[in-house]
Design a protein that fits this description.
five-stranded mixed β-sheet, about 220 residues
Length: about 220
C-alpha cells in the first residue's frame, strides 16, 4: 500500500470505529480495537493514532502513559514487602542475541537470538537490544510470580548498560505486576551467555529458584 492509501485506511478505520473508541475505558481497549480492525501494524498504527487525535481528540500515547504511571505506582506500593527476584540481563546487537540469568543461580538462564518480529529490538541499536533483554527478564519474573500465586513481586534487573532505565520497562512491568528497579554491574554473566551456542527457553528454568533466599517464603 502507498502512504496515501495507508492514511485513507487509518482515517476510515477510526471513522468506522468512533462509537467504540469514544466509549473505550483505557488504552488497552483502544489497542484491542486496532488489532481487531487490522490497523495495529507497524505502518498503520502511527497514522491511526494521528487520526484518533484529529477526529476524536483521543491522545492514545498520553492515555497510555498516564495509565502505566498510575499502575506502576500502585504496584510499587503493593510490592513493598513482596518477594524479590534478581536477574542479570544483556542484549548484544553485534550478534543480535539476548540473555537473562538468575543472580541466585546463573545456571537458570534464558538466551538465544532475537526473533525477527521482536517488538523492541532494532538492528543497529544497542540500547534496544538491552531493553528487549530486560523486557524478557520482567516476563520471566511475571511467570515466577504467577507460579508462586503472588499478587506482586519485586525485580532487581542487573545490567551493564548505563542508559537502561526502569521507566523504559514500565509498560511490561505493569502488565506482569512486577515492581522493577535497575542496578548497574561490571560483572554480568549474561554478557557471555549472549554468545553461547544454541539457545535455552524460559520454560527450562526452575521458576521457584529465581527468588532470593531471604524472600522465597
Amino acid at each position: 500500500m502507498t502512504q496515501t492509501q495507508d492514511w485513507d485506511t487509518a482515517e476510515q478505520a477510526v471513522t468506522d470505529g468512533a462509537e467504540q473508541l469514544i466509549t473505550a475505558k483505557d488504552h488497552r481497549q483502544i489497542r484491542a480495537w486496532a488489532v481487531d480492525a487490522g490497523v495495529a501494524t507497524k505502518n498503520l498504527w502511527p497514522k491511526v493514532k494521528t487520526e484518533l487525535r484529529k477526529q476524536l481528540d483521543i491522545d492514545y500515547d498520553q492515555i497510555r502513559a498516564d495509565a502505566i504511571a498510575a499502575e506502576a505506582a500502585h504496584i510499587e506500593a503493593a510490592a513493598k514487602d513482596a518477594p524479590v527476584i534478581e536477574l542479570f540481563c544483556a542484549g548484544d546487537d553485534e550478534v543480535a542475541s539476548y540473555a537473562v540469568c538468575a543472580v541466585a543461580d546463573d545456571h537458570e538462564s534464558w538466551y538465544g537470538e532475537f526473533h525477527a518480529k521482536d517488538v523492541i529490538y532494532r538492528a543497529g541499536d544497542e540500547l534496544s537490544a538491552e531493553r528487549s533483554a530486560a523486557d524478557k527478564a520482567i516476563y520471566l519474573a511475571g511467570k515466577a510470580r504467577e507460579k508462586a500465586g503472588l499478587d506482586t513481586v519485586r525485580l532487581i534487573v542487573h545490567t551493564s548498560h548505563h542508559d537502561l532505565t526502569a521507566e523504559d520497562l514500565s509498560a511490561t512491568a505493569s502488565r506482569h505486576r512486577v515492581a522493577v528497579s535497575i542496578e548497574l554491574t561490571d560483572q554480568n554473566p549474561a554478557i557471555a551467555l549472549c554468545r553461547a551456542p544454541g539457545y535455552r527457553t524460559w520454560r527450562e528454568i526452575r521458576l521457584d529458584s529465581l527468588f532470593t533466599p531471604a524472600t522465597a517464603s
